[in-house]
User: Fold this.
Amino acid sequence: MCVDLFPICRSITGNGVRQTLSYIKDLLPDLQLHEVPSGTKAFDWTVPKEWNVKDAYIIDPDGDKVVDFQKNNLHLVGYSVPVRKTISLEELQEHLYSLPEQSSAVPYVTSYYSPRWGFCITHERRKNLKPGNYHVFIDSTLTDGSLTYGELILPGLSDKEILLSTYICHPSMANNELSGPAVTTYLAKWLTGLDKRIFTYRIIFSPETIGSIVYLSKNLQKMKNNIIAGFNITCVGDNDDYSYLPSRYGNTLADRIALHVLTHTHPDYKRYSFLDRGGDERQYCSPGVDLPVVSVMRTKYGQYPEYHTSLDDLNFISPEGLLGGYYVLKKCLECLETNNTLINTVTCEPQLGQRGLYKTLSMKRDQKNSKDVLNLLAYCDGSNDLIAVADIINRPLWELMPLIEALMKNNLLKALRKNQ
Amino acid sequence: MCVDLFPICRSITGNGVRQTLSYIKDLLPDLQLHEVPSGTKAFDWTVPKEWNVKDAYIIDPDGDKVVDFQKNNLHLVGYSVPVRKTISLEELQEHLYSLPEQSSAVPYVTSYYSPRWGFCITHERRKNLKPGNYHVFIDSTLTDGSLTYGELILPGLSDKEILLSTYICHPSMANNELSGPAVTTYLAKWLTGLDKRIFTYRIIFSPETIGSIVYLSKNLQKMKNNIIAGFNITCVGDNDDYSYLPSRYGNTLADRIALHVLTHTHPDYKRYSFLDRGGDERQYCSPGVDLPVVSVMRTKYGQYPEYHTSLDDLNFISPEGLLGGYYVLKKCLECLETNNTLINTVTCEPQLGQRGLYKTLSMKRDQKNSKDVLNLLAYCDGSNDLIAVADIINRPLWELMPLIEALMKNNLLKALRKNQ
Amino acid sequence: MCVDLFPICRSITGNGVRQTLSYIKDLLPDLQLHEVPSGTKAFDWTVPKEWNVKDAYIIDPDGDKVVDFQKNNLHLVGYSVPVRKTISLEELQEHLYSLPEQSSAVPYVTSYYSPRWGFCITHERRKNLKPGNYHVFIDSTLTDGSLTYGELILPGLSDKEILLSTYICHPSMANNELSGPAVTTYLAKWLTGLDKRIFTYRIIFSPETIGSIVYLSKNLQKMKNNIIAGFNITCVGDNDDYSYLPSRYGNTLADRIALHVLTHTHPDYKRYSFLDRGGDERQYCSPGVDLPVVSVMRTKYGQYPEYHTSLDDLNFISPEGLLGGYYVLKKCLECLETNNTLINTVTCEPQLGQRGLYKTLSMKRDQKNSKDVLNLLAYCDGSNDLIAVADIINRPLWELMPLIEALMKNNLLKALRKNQ
Assistant:
């Protein structure tokens, strides 16, 4: 999937986005594609004109094509206006972007809301440009069109929703951001195949910032009423860190779930602050929106040198990296589906031995056997949900679940929420 | 007292318990003994049949008595059913319990709720058993009878109660558990002799688990209404640690008192988690019971190698060890009796000098003299009880009491609770 | 100012206090001087008789004036009763005060509320006193008079008040206490000159303890209703530490402001406990008064060896030291004037680019530019005041103010309090 989608020229609008969503719809047939016309108001924002590119290049004084959009779509500054002219190297320099400290990387540059044109090249190449006249050609269109996003609603037993949101606006870069759409697609396929879902899943594939703002402007009230936890899915494909970026105050169910899963699966995960944010949690967690959304990532955007350059390519991600991102998010969703508030049904400890839940022979070495059972019975007192109980006991919820199910089957614990 | 009681064969029921309680009643004449018939329901539990043993031994192929209940009652698995037969060594092995890692210790094993028989021996002895036929003999009875516990209520000025609870179900072991009944007995004697008790004391000598469950089933509502703090008294006889095990959420008056006393008397005490629990706090702190009960111990059960073996004998405890346990618990009770919420009677600082509470000559070196007085006046603002004030000031309550009494006598502080 | 005021013999009453306040009134013409007659009741206290001294000395057996009040008014114990007699060295010794561990220092000693007389001398001098008869002479008066304090009210747009309080009762000592009146005077001059004050300022120059108690007894209800933050200004003239001493529970606006300013201006400041208090915060923060008052100091009283001796002289303080104390308190007042609760006016992030508040070109290296703007918009959600927002963002409020003003001008933030 990443290999197929990598070469497509995506931006916040345009045919590259449609082509990408169409590819995903082949994998998730229930995905709904929405088109929002240019000029549509969304809170403080307006949907911009649609941008499409046929070709773009620079020809040097020797007649060589020194920069070619066809070879790498990062070469063109995103949302560049059309241009066709011959200019001096000095004038050209004002439209070139490169990274002196990463001289072999093509940077990723955009100018969505201010009309500009420009090219991104490696600093090595830039230093070798000869004096003389250059022909620059950008065959782009900026016209009234629409912004495209994909939405997949997977109904569950409850109206309460879990949000998954990812970006489809980045051109040829892999971790940020093909890993997000890829992992989200496979999470959606897994969710689709479940026999039973407690919660309804709202899964969004949209361009960053303007996409989530447009989406929120159309769905805010319903989302505020229903969403109990959400995940912004980005940078989930490399082999390095696992990372957590909290919601605005770090105190939501999504935060507790993410911390519980990462603590037990990857205890050396990196914990960021909301001050380190940079993705759509900026919108989902903004005042007045206040959704319980966190980011669970591999190496966080901005924390690896390849970020937002041509070096964030298919070699930077790996099947193992993506699978790691997938598993940790799947574990979060499983914990959410499992979570409930249980309450003890008997006063004092129940007699576990007669129910086969406890060794009947008491001997020094066996004392620790049934600690989990007794701890579950002690802290399932109606004041803690299962994640809180598991946190108190310091055990992963998934390892406690067989015991919890046995205790429920024996009517020693009962659920306060009934729809399971 | 420990020497006298050590040899008695105690269990959760039977004549050993009665004999033990009768001995304690000689020391505490107001102790009430209660008998609860076998078959009585108590929450999820049923009082088991009563178990008594006349004799038990194993005779080896040479005719030697290799294991003899008369020599050490730990040799017999608690609640062993009667048996009289000759069996091979192989078959016998299935009924033997020993500790390979502590080869000179006889383990303590019970099987209260599942009919079994068995013998506990040292691993050294077990390895030297010869092949051949063994005669096993257990002259025990398991009949309808009753569970016996002792209860002593010492009335105070207030109906509010302090709970002391300890175990009388352990056979020949010293720290766990003759230290608990011994220290509790002497605390009760001290309380009995007091001129005035603010609180009513509810003191329970009962078999572990089933005893406290039975007791709670008969007294729960009254206990929930009245008990303001309680102590589970166990493992208070050795010379090593001082230990604290909190209530379920660690936030009760009993927790605050125990921490205050241990912090100032034994600052190197060990602080356990409720997850480390193993005694009757399991019942007292269970959901629906929710009593404010903690354990203040010397070395905690399970934390010393001699625990639940024949090595926990009279050599493991000492008069100094028991006295240390007694003093720290006595200090807790004294702090409870002393505790009150006081409130300042004057706005701004009172003029202490004219009342003889402050040096009248102010000079650099004297500045620290009256810090405690001023701190008491500052934090006795009606929002903190005296334990909280002493914690803020970081001073032991007992060292502040003479000042507090002087301030009350001068009408600078008055008590919100009047019954003192 | 310190040079002029240093030689005056101040005490809690008397002409030295009037002379000092009159000097300050020359600098602050609106300062109101109040006289409270001896015998006036103030809560638990009574205004004492007024004390004035014409002369005092000791003449040794050789006829030499070995101690002379005219040379240093610290030589006389504060509130000494008149005396004129010849006594032996032995009897004299009972009336002498010196510091063996600081043999060249004259200690500062007072006996306000217990009739005494005495002299303070260096320990060096004391050791060299010859046997024989000494003539002691104290020409003091203790008569019905009055206690004098100065009060300056600077009205602001709001009735809500900020309290500044300092001491004018210390004789010839510099850091404790001419630095307090000096810095307070210059803060008052700065406040007087402001175009606009949000808050009303209540500025008190009074004798320590009895002065603040008398003042509170006359103004308590109004102060409790209006004061939102206050500063006890003392020991603000040396070159060493910056120090913070909290209010009784350390949780007031004054505490938050002081911590914010010191954290960003002098991160190595010393943080004391309310248990370390020793000035008029004892009255302002007492139960029933409960004003939000903290002390922001240079080196705290009692923490430097020169404290309360003749060594705390004009060499111990410096213009730089006083200026440092002035600036940090001024910063606190500026933060209070600036502080407000702001709320975001748009849902989701506003489009900052079109308002010139954000770079319109997105490139890797520019990502951090507008963090402050986005963080302000995220945490100005109506639940935090600006100090709290700045604390969350971990940035000094004064550096954020230009951005905050730009955001308000652009109607992206609006104030919940309107009087600015």
Observations:
- The mean pLDDT of chain A is 94.
- Chain A has three domains: 2-48+146-338, 50-143, 341-415.
- The first helix of chain A runs from residue 2 to 5.
